[in-house]
Design goal:
By secondary structure, the protein is of the alpha/beta class. It contains 23 helices and 18 strands.
């Protein structure tokens, strides 16, 4: 694999591509297209396997050297915590069990090293790609990067990572190593065809302060070296061959954004207190320990969602209690005195540690609390790990994909068993630890009041709730336009859940994508939502909106919106409200209009 300058012919018309905002900021400059050649691995029989073993060993040594260089660069630029991302890749390369398995196959099958390496890695990669979870699919890219590095070094190919000028890098896929190594150049931004906002590469881009947009699909198809480019990492937009008026618009937006970001970060740690005294808690969604250092600078009141399933991404089995405990303990210590809400494994039958089970529709299948109740020993181990961590910080537990009250009571029984087992061993833990439920299935929404009687809090997962309510798979491009989070049925269901929780005497949070959308903030506040949980970068904006809003006025506004039966009219009202009262936030994060 190598990088090469694209030879696409220049296009004169303005092209606008929309992707996923991965790292905030606006970049205006020239493109450098770094196109990665596809790796073609041929299966060959060999007469002397020892020669292949020697080639493999040299490749592993070279790959280790490269990754250590990446680690050292990351350490210098963003610190040890985030540099640990590359420790996982180094461990994969040096894993004696995995490496020995490759060596044994080379000898036994008398095949070339490239073929065996590709085949061994592909098993993990394909299993991850089959997952219904975006998180697992993103990790497939990172494992593929390790595979490609080893194969590239088997072929003695070189990787170009130095170039002149201050470009915006356009590539098919941004890996964690790319994000770090390419930052040694005066890079203005990253744009990639594939990837997601929660990938390691995106997290590193945010840490490096480099704007990034991923998931553009056709960026490398349209871009060419030297093309004028605008990258908007706030809204996930890339403009190619921008007109003079577009450049003017984004230049003004860039100045506004930079001033606004500086102001918001200064006051980020002020409480989200409405003008009439209602305190709202604004927390972060995370899945990696490397994201913890972002909490304080962005004013997070804790972690509203810690996705624990990422612990099994590079494993063929769920990590044991001790491994989980060490990770949960570190998160609890770092967030203290604020809480961390650990969501129990939201995994399904399509994950790689369940080799004998395949599902045609994992979205409606064996996943979340359903699977864990069928594997009570796994759930109990995780409960014990979180309980033990609660002795070192403020921890909470949340069950995902709950559909019935019975699932909650059964999970609570296993939770009580875990507590009794720790008591018998005289292990210390928080005796008042809170347990909650994610409301993301319509049946759970309708049973919110009944469910709330068995837990300490509810948290609304709007992503799944929306697709289940509207019967729309949001990953299906044929019907993606029907997926509408501002659909009146969705909004009225959210209001019902909030009221049901309050009637039962528990607080209600939201950790879905809507919680991080500034367009929805005042509406959700007016509905009575107690806590917002979203990606760290957007928290200062949410807190600013809340601090400058009157709760009573927000309640009146929300009541008006809930009477509207058209999603378009609802969004029109939300846009007008935000534009009128929060002009700078509206123009920097929502609007595509010019800034006057």
């Amino acid at each position: 694999m190598s990088f090469e300058i694209s030879e696409h012919s220049a296009a004169s018309e303005e092209i606008v591509l929309r992707g996923v905002p991965a790292s905030p900021g606006i970049a205006i400059g020239k493109a450098v297209v770094l196109k990665k050649d596809g790796i073609v691995v041929e299966e060959r029989s060999v007469d002397d396997p020892s020669l292949e073993l020697d080639r493999l060993q040299k490749s592993l040594e070279r790959s280790t050297y490269e990754l250590e260089k990446v680690y050292n660069t990351a350490f210098e630029k963003i610190g040890s915590d985030k540099a640990k991302i590359f420790e996982a890749q180094l461990l994969m390369i040096s894993d004696p069990i995995f490496v020995d398995a490759i060596k044994r196959r080379i000898v036994a099958e008398r095949k070339n090293a490239e073929f065996v390496v590709a085949d061994e890695f592909s098993r993990q990669i394909e299993q991850l790609r089959k997952s219904d979870s975006e998180i697992f699919k993103l990790r497939a890219f990172e494992i593929e990067d390790v595979r490609n590095r080893i194969i590239r070094n088997l072929a003695d190919a070189k990787l170009k990572s130095r170039f002149e000028g201050t470009p915006i890098v356009v590539t098919s896929e941004l890996t964690p190593a790319d994000a770090v190594l390419l930052s040694r150049n005066a890079v203005l931004g990253y744009a990639s065809d594939f990837g997601g906002a929660r990938s390691h590469a995106s997290i590193l881009s945010r840490s490096l302060g480099i704007p990034a947009v991923v998931g553009l699909k056709e960026a490398t198809k349209h871009a060419h070296d030297g093309m004028d480019l605008i990258l908007d990492g706030y809204r996930g937009v890339v403009v190619m061959n921008p007109t003079g008026s577009t450049v003017k618009k984004y230049s003004e937006r860039k100045s506004w954004c930079e001033r606004l970001d500086a102001e918001l970060l200064v006051e980020a740690n002020e409480p989200a207190l409405t003008t009439d005294g209602r305190r709202i808690f604004v927390e972060a969604n995370i899945e990696l320990l490397e994201e913890l250092p972002l909490l304080k600078p962005h004013g997070a009141d804790g972690v509203g969602l810690f996705r624990t399933e990422t612990l099994i991404i590079n494993s063929e089995a769920i990590p044991d209690e001790e491994t989980q405990f060490e990770i949960f303990k570190k998160a609890a210590e770092e967030a203290y005195p604020n809480p961390v809400v650990y969501r129990t494994f939201d995994i399904g039958g399509d994950k790689m540690f369940v080799q004998d089970h395949a599902e045609a529709n994992p979205f409606l299948g064996w996943r979340g609390i359903r699977m864990m109740l069928d594997r009570p020993e796994l759930l109990k181990d995780q409960f014990r790990a979180i309980l033990r961590a609660s002795a070192y910080g403020k921890c909470k537990i949340m069950y995902p994909m709950v559909a019935t009250v019975d699932e909650v009571t059964r999970a609570n029984e296993i939770f009580d068993e875990a507590k009794r087992s720790l008591d018998s061993q005289k292990v210390n833990y928080d005796k008042k630890i809170e347990v909650g439920v994610m409301i993301e299935i319509p049946s759970a929404a309708l049973l919110s009041k009944e469910i709330a009687r068995h837990v300490s809090f509810l948290s609304i997962g709007t992503n799944d709730l929306t697709q289940y309510l509207l019967a729309v798979d949001r990953t299906n491009e044929l019907v993606a336009n029907v997926y509408e989070e501002f659909h009146p049925a969705v909004l009225r269901t959210i209001k019902y859940i909030i009221d049901a929780g309050h009637d039962a005497g528990v607080k209600v949070a939201m950790c879905g994508e809507m919680a991080g959308n500034p367009l929805a903030t005042v509406m959700l506040l007016g509905m009575g939502l107690d806590e917002f949980s979203a990606v760290s970068s957007v928290l200062p904006i949410l807190k600013k909106i809340i601090r400058d809003t009157n709760y009573k006025s927000a309640r009146k506004f929300a009541r008006q919106l809930l009477k509207i039966d058209s999603p378009a009219e609802i969004k029109k009202s939300l846009n007008e409200y935000l534009k009128t009262r929060f002009e700078r936030i509206y123009f920097t994060t929502i609007s595509e209009e010019n800034l006057d």
